[in-house]
Amino acid sequence: MLSSESIKQVALAAGADLCGIGSMDRFEGAPPDMDPRRLFPEAKSVIGMAFRIPRGVQQGIENGTQFYQYPSMAYGGINEIFAPSVLYRVGQFIEDHGYEAMVYRNTGARSNVSDMDGTPGNTISPEEQIESMEHQKTNTAHHRTVQFSRPTRADTSAPDLQFHFRLAGVACGLGEIGWSKMFLSPQFGPLQRLAFIFTDAPLKPDPLYDGEPICRRCMACVRQCPGSCLSETESVTVYVGGKRCEWAKLDEWKCYAFYTHGGRYYNPFVPREVFDRNEGGVLDVLEGKAKANEQNVASVYLALQKYFPSWVGYNMARCGGCIRACVSMLEKKGGCLEGRFHEPLRKGKAWKMDR
């Protein structure tokens, strides 16, 4: 007989580090275009799996010596290779027992809702913005028209529906949302990626996480964000299954710009004179003189992309300041990561270039 316990055993044996199960009614109140119940209306349960990010892949960024391991291994490696294989195995197990398994890997699928800030609109990636901008300038680049998707029938949302992964992790009892908007688990802090399966199997749900607060509201993430993208006072609050989730108001597009471009003090790949000349309005966006949005971030990307490659389809991370700050604080006295490693992630002050 299929059970919550048997599914967890298979998931962990297949390679997931954590597995939790939630009931679909915990998504009550979600915006319709982000409600996973519209993906599979017959689903009764959601199975959440967390895949641990090795702390060591951040050492290169922490020391300013190696920048591609984090996005290639912690993002590309987990999202595109490892997690899908585990989803496949667990999905097979569920369907061998006569129930359907709708697997949902961690993805950047474009939908009618922005995966950056959750707003409705015609959302395209910075790379697609570049393609469009180049076409407008030269009329030679291949141009792809990106349109709104539209519902296939009156009682559903337009494809491809993008639900909130971190809140789904909360719904599965795996942890909580930190002030930085990162998902935090008591086992790994912010160091995991998530993937899900929706099924019509009636499974016993896990309780929502109600242990000691993982996020201590130390505000290290706010202080150590190089782009000042996180507010210390303004926040967003939502409820999942009655559990209150609150995080800092985040400037998502500016965060994207700093994560992939770093600014003059955090990007060793771009010559100083490029920043000095403010090519493509780079500093206007990174320093807040121009509002960060899809088009402006695309301009920054276009001005700087020739100086560094992407890895496994993921941009190199030149930031990760909030994550590393969080890990460092959680390793200190009283944090959930205390005593997990013989040596701390951070042994001195975070590096910063002269300009």
Automatic annotation (TrEMBL):
Residues 205-235 form the 4Fe-4S ferredoxin-type domain. InterPro entries: 4Fe4S_Fe-S-bd. This is 4Fe-4S ferredoxin-type domain-containing protein.
